[in-house]
User: Which sequence fits this backbone?
C-alpha cells in the first residue's frame, strides 16, 4: 500500500500540534516547579575535604593541606597539594576547590599567585579525552593548569566554564532544580600540575600531559557531590 505525502494543510496542522505540545510541556514543568518549590532556598555547599591519598597512574604520593590566603576571593573553599615521582620526574599537583568562581585561570594565576604566563610559552590545548588545558613555563618550572568541571570537559576560560554550565547542567540538573536546588553546578576543581624546568621543556610538558590524563580521569570519577545547604 502506498502512502500519500502530507499536503500543506496537513503539514501545517501537524507542526502546530508539535509546537503546542512542546509549549504545554514546558509550562507544566515550570508550573509544577513553582507550585512545589516556590522559591529556591538552597545553595551549593562550600564544605569539602580533599582525600589524603590519590594515586597518580597507580603511583602513591604525599599530600598536605594548603592554607588559603585570607585575601583570596571567597570562592576559594579549600586546597590541597599532592607530590609524586612520576616517570623519573618530581610532579607537584595543587588542587583548589572553587565554588561560584571566576574561572578565567590566567586572571587567577596573576591575581592570587603573581604568575603571568609568558605569551611565548603559554599555550591553550584541547584534548578529546579531557578538554582544554593551559601549558606554560618560567625559569624554574613547567606548568599545566585546568579547571575540572562537574559536567563537560575541563576549561581554561570563564567563557568556556559558563558554556558548560549552560549546556551540560541543564541536562544533568533538571530534577535537582525541580527540588529547589540551583540549576547550575558552579563548582570547579582547579588543578595546577608542575615539574622542575629542564633542558628540554617540551619533554617535561609531555610528562605533565600524560600525568594530567590520569589525574583528570580519577577526579572526573570522584568529583565532589553537589551537596546543598538552606
Assistant:
Amino acid at each position: 500500500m502506498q502512502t500519500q505525502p502530507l499536503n500543506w494543510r496537513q503539514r501545517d496542522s501537524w507542526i502546530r500540534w508539535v509546537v503546542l505540545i512542546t509549549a504545554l510541556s514546558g509550562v507544566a514543568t515550570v508550573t509544577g516547579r513553582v507550585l512545589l518549590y516556590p522559591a529556591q532556598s538552597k545553595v551549593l555547599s562550600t564544605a569539602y575535604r580533599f582525600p589524603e591519598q590519590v594515586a597518580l597512574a597507580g603511583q602513591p604520593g604525599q599530600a598536605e593541606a594548603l592554607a588559603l590566603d585570607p585575601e583570596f576571593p571567597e570562592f576559594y573553599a579549600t586546597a590541597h597539594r599532592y607530590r609524586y615521582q612520576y616517570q623519573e620526574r618530581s610532579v607537584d599537583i595543587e588542587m583548589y576547590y572553587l565554588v561560584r568562581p571566576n574561572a578565567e585561570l590566567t586572571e587567577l594565576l596573576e591575581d592570587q599567585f603573581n604568575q603571568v604566563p609568558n605569551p611565548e610559552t603559554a599555550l591553550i590545548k584541547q584534548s578529546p579525552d579531557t578538554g582544554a588545558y593551559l601549558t606554560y613555563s618560567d625559569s624554574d618550572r613547567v606548568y599545566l593548569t585546568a579547571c575540572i568541571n562537574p559536567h563537560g570537559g575541563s576549561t581554561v576560560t570563564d567563557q568556556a566554564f559558563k558554556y558548560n554550565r549552560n549546556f551540560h547542567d541543564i541536562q544533568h540538573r533538571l530534577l535537582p532544580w525541580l527540588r529547589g536546588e540551583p540549576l547550575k553546578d558552579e563548582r570547579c576543581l582547579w588543578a595546577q600540575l608542575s615539574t622542575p624546568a629542564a633542558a628540554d621543556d617540551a619533554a617535561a610538558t609531555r610528562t605533565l600531559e600524560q600525568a594530567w590524563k590520569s589525574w583528570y580521569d580519577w577526579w572526573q570519577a570522584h568529583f565532589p557531590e553537589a551537596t546543598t545547604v538552606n
Q: What stands out?
A: Residues 26-41 have pLDDT under 50 and may be disordered. Residues 1-36 form one domain. DSSP finds five helices and nine strands in the chain.
